[in-house]
Write a structure and sequence with these properties.
Number of strands of chain B: 1
Shape of chain A: globular
Strand content of chain B: under 5%
Distance between the termini of chain B: 48 Å
Oligomer: heterodimer
Structural class of chain B: mainly alpha
Radius of gyration of chain B: 19 Å
Largest sheet of chain A: 2 strands, antiparallel
Distance between the termini of chain A: 76 Å
Structural class of chain A: mainly alpha
Shape of chain B: globular
Number of helices of chain B: 11
Strand order of the largest sheet of chain A: 1-2
Order of helices and strands of chain B: HHEHHHHHHHHH
Chain lengths: ~675, ~325
Amino acid sequence: MEQARRRRSSAAGARATRAAGHLGLLAGALAGTAVAIQGLAAGGTQGPAHVELPRLFPFAGMSLVLDGLGAFFLLVVSVIALAAAIYGPAYLKAHPASSPSVIVLGINLFVASMSLVLLAGDAITFLLAWEGMTLASYSLVLAEDKEANIHAGLVYIVIAHVGTALIMVSFLALGLRAGSLDFAAMRASAAALSGTERSMLFFMALLGLGAKAGVVPLHVWLPLAHPAAPSHVSALMSGVMLKVAIYGIVRFGLDLLAPAAGPLPPSWGWTLLGLGSVSAVIGVLYALQQHDLKRLLAYHSVENVGIILMGLGMAMLLAHRGEAAEALAAIALAASLLHTFNHGAFKGLLFLCAGSVQSAAHTLNMEELGGLARRMPWTAFLFLVGAVAISGLPPLNGFVSEWMTFQALILGGGELRSGSGLAVIAAAAALALTGGLASACFVKAFGVTFLGRPRSSHAAEAMEAAPSMRAAMALLAAACVLIGLLPGYAMSVLELPVALLLKGTSLGSIVTVRGPLVLSASGSVGSGTAVSMTLAAALFAALALAVCGLLALQHPDRRRLAPTWTCGMAPQSRFDYTPTAFAKSLRLIFATLYQSKRSVTRLTGATPYDLRSLHWKSEMVDLSQKHFYDRLQTGVTRVAHAVRRRSTGRIHYYIAYVLVTLLITLLIFGRG
Amino acid sequence: MDHALAPWLLALGQALLLAALGPLVTGLIQKIKARFQCRRGAGLLQGYRDLWKLARKGSVQADTASPFFRLVPALALGASLAAVTLVPVLLVPLEHGAASRLPLGDALLFLGWLSLGRFLTAVSALDAGGAFGGMGASREMTVSTLVEPALILVIFSIAIVAGSTELGAIAGHRVALGGSFGASDFLALFAMLILLLAETGRIPVDNPDTHLELTMLHEGMLLEHSGPALGCLVLANHTKQIALMAFVQALFLPRMASGATPRAMAQGLAVFVLGTLVLSVFLAVVESAYAKLRFFHLPQFLSISLLCAFLAVALRLL
């Protein structure tokens, strides 16, 4: 009796804690949005806001700084976190987890530490918050106690920590020269760095940050870890956490390590452009072959990080090389930052939709879904909005940022001329290929999941998501539509970060020179290009509505429903095209990159023509998994074995090792 | 005419004019093909007759289809019409990017609208739940994936010298250059002609006359549509074809006249009619002279255009 009452009261307590957690996240997200908007509005006149933190360590102070760049990324984090906060409670109710309180606590810590990374004014705060972000997301990946989650968590935490180590070394090396770990001091001391040192530090940081951003070939953890977490956490991990890594790359490359005057080392821009192109194409190619909806979306994050890096690389190549190039650098940087926000919005939206599908149909395997559009019309419609946006199709936001990236590449290619220009145009072709593949992938993802006939009883009995979940999805869908229709206003948000990073270049005089409704891009040749997404979308809407009106004239009696003709057989769900079948032609065309293995097992009776059963299995290996990680792992294991063989447990051996090490160390470092 | 409304009316008028001419172009190509086959063939106006027939028919929709299914034809036709407003047929501004021109879009938005139409059509093909629709959608998206990079390279090879991706500005640039045509232009034109075959869905890439499951790409996606909705999709396809022809001409054909005077517009239209005739003959001859390629040989065929387009860019930049 007593025990039962205690259990009941503790359950009530846990519920109250969870409710407090949900409200905390909501309040935090709202506060973050307000701070970011205030920072973007006031930062131009008052300079960055600065807060000293209590001194935790004897050797360095800690502080928070809100400048234009941090404020913009904070806005990205807060908007997606807001949607996740609205979505979370109903999702956790519909999709019971073993430890919901841990998820609620974890997501709060996760969002808080991501915001702290963006606000950090010194390396210590940055690294502590960065580590907090990793650990909080790690706990969320493990929220469901399954074998797959444990494996995903292990891969994630190992790669994340190797990355953190590299970032730390880069920070410490810079801090040593500056004599302080404060960003302002580092910035000042970086002016005295030699070219080689500067590039060494940048590439070290890029390796660490790139691992977190999911750049190919460092992406293998991403498609494992992102789908493993609860869906609103996946939305945050894919939509936002990768952006925090992008923030780090921008902070290092264009702010902390940027030379005081003159252009950045060209190797930085080329590396980012190359990595971006490869990530974009490889990411979308692997996405095409996934059957799991969330894993497909996770691979698309690799693609979109690639697109962001292409813009960023172009900005780095063109920055500080004269007036015309500077204007193009501003377009490239704005494209990259806008795509950062856009990807957060549509990828967040798609992950939330996937979460709704999961809680309604209890599976994410597209082979078992189908026909959900009639059961869940809202989710289906919102997913379609996200799909059109992520495929870079007009009139939504994905098109706008890809258009700007294309403009930066084409005009930048014309600016650089010769071989460099050609390399840039090749990157543009890669971006076009990416766009085409992404459309194909989302025709598949949307069509196979939501259309046709249900392929399992779960899918046939799916129910529409709860109203609060729909509201969260609608919020992000609205962001996708609004940025698509009115991109000029998004440019005013980017004004401050671009001016900060490109030493005072004003976006308003380049991209929105013809008013907020028209986007312009122009280089040193010709008059440039101007597009008004608002007018174009209005024209499209008017034309489509007119056609709709004409179609509505048809008398309702003349429309009827009938089963699809299936050549005389009874129609059933096995006639529908499956995701594997849909992607088959591209799998064959890009076979070299997939190296897919398939095995067919036939069980026949007395003669080969008497087929009892047929089992078909296909498997795709991630090339970077095979050629990079697996080799790395083998190497590490071999070294570990070698060490173990020599660790005999006899003291005199160890004394000998210590002496030899000491001798070698003294020989190398003992002279000075 | 109200001055502020004039560009809007011009854009809409051009869209409607080209949409109205679309079926005629298809009829012309069919007629030439019939002549090659020693047949008399259907009349030039057969396209219109088919549309009229479809418009009056009732429609049957698959009972498994979702609410999107009925919207898709209107949206696809809207996208095709929006694309056709962007090609400079009536109006070629000489001072490129002149502010009087409505900033409705550039070559990238043109491709964007066409991709949107294709995306939506492919989605609707999966809706009815028949294998043919899925097969058509899968193949169409595969081909479009291979076409897209080459198409972007062709546009860029010209946009680099024009300094703009606006089709009006590019055509204006050709006007300013006069008739001069370099090696790069020839390579880009060759690439573009291959892409035109793929994008308009003609032999050797696709066979528009067939409903045989082994050969169809685009037709497979339309199988489950019927009546006026099918009419919309067929008209969208005619419109897309004529828009692509106008697109090729905007990129490559030097115009003699420019500006917004009625005389210049009439001249522009005359040049357009001539160019369209030439391209129609090209499509009909290729379609009569070649067999359809096996689907998995298409990447090789299309990579020729990618190579040519890349060389065109290289010649411009090096």
